[in-house]
Design brief:
It is built from 16 helices and 25 strands. It has 545 residues and is an alpha/beta fold. Among the domains are: 204 residues, ANL, N-terminal domain (Rossmann fold); 99 residues, 2-Layer Sandwich (GMP Synthetase, Chain A, domain 3), CATH 3.30.300.30. It has a 9-stranded mixed β-sheet, sandwiched between helices. Strand 1 and strand 2 form a beta hairpin. Bound molecules: adenosine-5'-diphosphate.
Length: 545
């Protein structure tokens, strides 16, 4: 028997309409690429979304199912594009501005973008490859001065596009299972693959992450959205903030730690998101130059790479700010797990609590996790047995765009994450590695992530990346690349070995350490282990310690 409840559309339009009707006075603040501050309300943004919907439909001829690209920083107009494009049933394809020219050309042609909205400061990146675009009919310039000169063909200014457009627009009826957005994976482990989000998945992800156990967002909060809008829809925060009525602060390209601290201070930001390297940079800058007054910042949500226990501890000890750990993938919209302590942890020691907080956390409602071991069995929830993490849920990818990647899915419908992890008896998941990054030495697995976390807790180490290198006797051995806090005063090889001996068995401890200036990173700031292995194979990493 069917329930007798209305079939109400779970679409991005429902989110936008709600945000406008309940929180129209709430503000969106942008620090534009030229450093100037812009402020307007959800209500103003709403009207411009409708103008954009009219312009897309009547001026640019965009219709349902068309792909519209954005190549932009985090700012108000980019929020308008999220809602305006999806609102008419077209697909907002956010293009990662940090991919190589070759990857960018590949994804623009693969997605068949019809129009690309591009920030003036990013235009040079597209100019070089624009002649190779097969489907792009025009480019719309964002934040560009009137006299902006470019070799891009068929350009229009965003403000000219919106000018004279009506603020009335009737949203079309959209099937909630239709696509609303698309993001390609950042290609850490291969060619970027398109993940097509539906209105329903976006809506469900957004309503779920508002909760206190999750993003912990309310109308009293001010969120700084550091995660780029070009990466997995900024982790869903532009949707979450409209549902919770939280003020949004968007930094565009103002991402230097000192500038972010200034923004955090001036806007009295209470919560923020970002990858660990951003928060490490902010911590170091605050340590060097402590803010005169305590920041309003209560917590920062970290994902994308493991949040080191030492960073959680230091930020909290020195500035009273909490690090919250989350895990996800482009393929999981992205939030899959999040880590907060529960009342049953109250009696643990601070160190024991920290150990739990450094885990990636428990699954969100609407998401299921399991771990499959090498022999194909489901691992027990004992916090020890490692295996491949598999996921299914209401916002997990079911297939990649235009490809039949059967190898990414199991026969019984789970997505294979490529991450290796454990789950403990309370359901807390901990990533130990990526399948391709695991180190197998003398028949035993070694977790590169655990070694990295331990190494950066050493006061003289700023960054640590561990990869497997071939070894005649052990098949593979761990190699640690280290960036030192003060290169004049670095620990010796022996010191490092005895430092790690506190937590690791002898066979797990790297004997080889290399000093580098900076760990090579991917477009979204993760350690680029493919590149590290390539440098090693090319003999470009010498044993320095
Ligand atoms: P790509 O797959 O191209 O790197 P994603 O941003 O989708 O791009 O990356 C997802 C991957 O990032 C996960 O599969 C996992 O390996 C890693 N990751 C994400 N969050 C965490 C975290 N909190 N701790 C450790 N690794 C993480």
């Amino acid at each position: 028997m069917k329930g007798l409840i209305m079939d109400y559309p779970l679409t991005t339009n429902t989110i936008l309409e709600y945000g406008n009707s309940v929180f129209h006075k709430k503000k969106i603040i942008t620090y534009l690429p030229n450093g100037t501050r812009h402020e307007y309300s959800f209500g103003d943004m709403y009207k411009r979304c409708k103008q954009l919907a009219n312009a897309l439909t009547h001026k640019l001829g965009i219709t349902k199912g068309d792909m519209v690209g954005t190549f932009a920083w985090n700012h108000g107009p980019h929020i308008e594009l999220y809602y305006g494009i999806s609102g008419i049933g077209a697909i907002c394809h956010t293009i990662n501005i940090r991919l190589s020219a070759q990857q960018t050309e590949y994804i623009i042609n693969n997605s068949e973008d019809k129009v690309i909205f591009v920030d003036a400061t990013l235009v040079p990146l597209l100019e070089k490859i624009a002649p190779l675009f097969e489907t792009v009919e025009c480019f719309v310039l964002l934040n560009a001065p009137k006299d902006f000169v470019t070799t891009l063909p068929n350009t229009l200014h965003y403000e000219d596009l919106l000018a004279d457009q009506s603020e009335d627009f009737d949203w079309p009826v959209i099937d909630e299972k239709d696509a609303c957005g698309m993001c390609y994976t950042s290609g850490t482990t291969g060619l970027p693959k398109g993940v097509l989000y539906s209105h329903r998945s976006t809506f469900l992800h957004a309503t779920t992450i508002v909760a206190p156990n999750a993003g912990n967002a309310s109308s009293r909060d001010t969120f700084l959205l550091i995660v780029p809008q070009f990466h997995v829809m900024a982790w869903g925060y532009p949707y979450m903030c409209l549902l919770s009525g939280s003020k949004m602060v968007l930094p565009s390209s103002n991402l230097k730690p000192e500038t972010l601290i200034k923004i955090l201070t001036e806007e009295k930001v209470t919560k923020a998101n970002g990858v660990p390297s951003i928060w490490l940079g902010i911590y170091e800058a605050m340590k060097k130059n402590p803010p005169k007054e305590k920041l309003a910042l209560e917590e920062y949500l970290v994902g994308g790479s493991a949040l080191p226990m030492s960073l959680i501890e230091n930020f909290e000890k020195d500035f009273g700010i909490k690090g919250i750990h989350a895990w996800g993938m482009t393929e999981t919209s992205p939030l899959g797990t999040l880590c907060r302590l529960q009342p049953n942890h109250d009696n643990l020691s601070y160190k024991e609590k920290l150990k739990i907080r450094a885990k990636q956390g428990v699954a969100f409602p609407g998401v299921e996790l399991r771990i499959i071991t090498d022999d194909g069995n489901r691992a027990p929830h004992d916090g020890k047995t490692m295996g491949e993490l598999q996921i299914k849920g209401a916002w997990t990818v079911s297939s990649y765009f235009k490809t039949n990647n059967h190898e990414s899915f199991t026969k019984d419908g789970w997505f294979k994450t490529g991450d290796v992890s454990t789950i403990d008896e309370d359901g807390y998941m901990q990533i130990t590695d990526r399948t391709k990054d695991l180190i197998k030495s003398g028949g035993e697995w070694i977790s590169s992530v655990a070694l990295e976390s331990a190494l950066v807790s050493h006061p003289k180490i700023k960054e640590a990346a561990v990869v497997a290198i071939p070894d005649k006797k052990w098949v593979e051995r761990p190699l640690a690349l280290l960036v030192f806090t003060t290169p004049q005063d670095k620990p010796s090889n022996e010191e490092l070995i005895s430092f790690l001996a506190k937590d690791f068995a002898k066979y797990q401890i790297p004997t080889d350490y290399v000093e580098i200036d900076e760990v090579p990173k991917t477009s979204v700031g993760k350690f680029d282990k493919k590149e590290i292995r390539r440098l090693y194979a090319a003999g470009k990493l010498t044993m320095a310690l």
